[in-house]
Amino acid sequence: MREALRIAVVGHSNTGKTSLLRTLTRDADFGEVDDAAGTTRHVQSALLRGHGGIEWFDTPGMEDSVALLEYLDHIAPLSERLDGPARIRRFLDSPEAHGRYEQEARVLNKLLECDAGLYVIDARDPVLSKHRDELALLAACARPLLPVLNFVHAPGHRAAQWRDAMSRLGLHAVLEYDTVAPPLDGEQQLYARLAVLLDRHADMLAELSGALGRERAARRQAAYRLAAGLLIDAAALHLQSPPQALAQTQALLRDKIRGREQACVKALLTLYHFHRHDYRADALPLENERFGMDLFHPQALKDMGVQLGVGAAAGAMAGAAVDLLSAGLSLGTGMLIGAAAGGLWQGVDRLGKRLSGKLRGYRELSVDDGVLRLLALRQQQLIEALERRGHAAREPIVLPQAAQWQSGPLPAPLKEARSRPEWSALAEGYVDDDRRKQQLASLADTLAQTAR
Ligand SMILES: Nc1nc2c(ncn2[C@@H]2O[C@H](COP(=O)(O)OP(=O)(O)OP(=O)(O)O)[C@@H](O)[C@H]2O)c(=O)[nH]1
Ligand SMILES: [Mg+2]
């Protein structure tokens, strides 16, 4: 097994060093992150496995570089013509390395031990002499440094000035990488630039970058399979109810579907290594009855621009389509499915004569197409938000409004699921047969393709 590459993450305090490592290692619990400067006090490592892997080192922020550089000029005057690492060594051997400049000593010591450093910059900051002094100290360690411009989504950032200042210091490869909302190909960009700086490790970095790209694609595919599973379960679920228990059956149906969506959301958060609190608490289906988010409130559907089945908005049981169940009835289950409660009564009126004598009073409840559309939209939006979210993000996810899935025919696998009650994992007699597997995979592809 090859040895891990060792990379130190360095920079001024509070620029997002720990945040960057959270995002790069996909670990939202790594280290401590805070608005206050001086949050990280000690060096902490994180291992990124695969192809030898990378051992990352988070370091404390540099705060006293101006004074330290003066001190260094004093204890290792230029007239002695020591090279950079020798000057830094002299400082590290001096008593002040354990006194006033203890933080800086930890950083420089770690950088000397590493193969390279990422120099994290808060791109909102103006370029000041303290930064130049900081870079002079870091550069003296004679390790390749890659400047990383963080906060590049902030209004009025100074990325251009920073790029200019960096090139004046001989640092020509620069990476723009916002740790909260990193570019989708951010990792690829990072490892490509590191490969240029770390020629001997270029093959390993290219392999690692390829592996991370494949992982990303596989994760997205797995996410859409989770969403497709939810949709099939919901579309296939039919609950039968005697007329007097209609309200209870309807409540049961809704609970089952809400619970199923919740399970899907949890599985998605876990898949992407995020926590429950990364999704706004009241956005989870079971935890609120606020009509904006409740799956079964007509307003939730309207807000998303989703079309309801005929008459559903008028019906008292909006969202739950009612179908008639009766053995031997020529009226197939498919016929009234898609029409919600209001639609049913209109439908019965219309069909009343033809059906007379054949109705046994039993009804079958299933969810309206509109609910399936809303479920599809919400999972798509959540997945795409998770794809773009850095593990440094601390604000909960807010789903955008989207325009797909709002109208038009539902995809064929969902239509088929409508007439396959045994396909719902929420029902008794559930079977995950080959056809279900095939249709789920096809639906997952459709979801993934319509998301972008
Ligand atoms: N909006 C936004 N906030 C960020 C970004 N990166 C970091 N932050 C925030 O900036 C603050 C500092 O982040 P840290 O990761 O603790 O910074 P640090 O460089 O490790 O700080 P020290 O350990 O104190 O030197 C935290 O409040 C982060 O949430 C970013 O890209 N965008
Ligand atoms: Mg930190």
Order of helices and strands: EHEEHHHEHEHEHHEHHEHHEHHH
Global structural class: alpha/beta
Structural domains: how many: 2
Strand arrangement within the widest β-sheet reads 2-3-1-4-5-6
Q: Give the ligands present.
A: guanosine-5'-triphosphate, magnesium ion
User: Helix amount, in percent?
Assistant: 40-55%
Shape: elongated
Residue windows where pLDDT falls under 50 for at least 5 positions: 286-293, 308-360
Distance between the termini: 39 Å
**Count of helix runs:** 15
> Would you tell me the overall average pLDDT?
80
The gyration radius over C-alpha positions equals 30 Å
Total strands: the figure is 9
Percent strand: 5-15%
Give the biggest sheet.
6 strands, mixed
Descriptive key words:
alpha/beta; Rossmann fold; 2 domains; 6-stranded mixed beta sheet; 3-stranded antiparallel beta sheet; 15 helices; elongated; binds guanosine-5'-triphosphate; binds magnesium ion
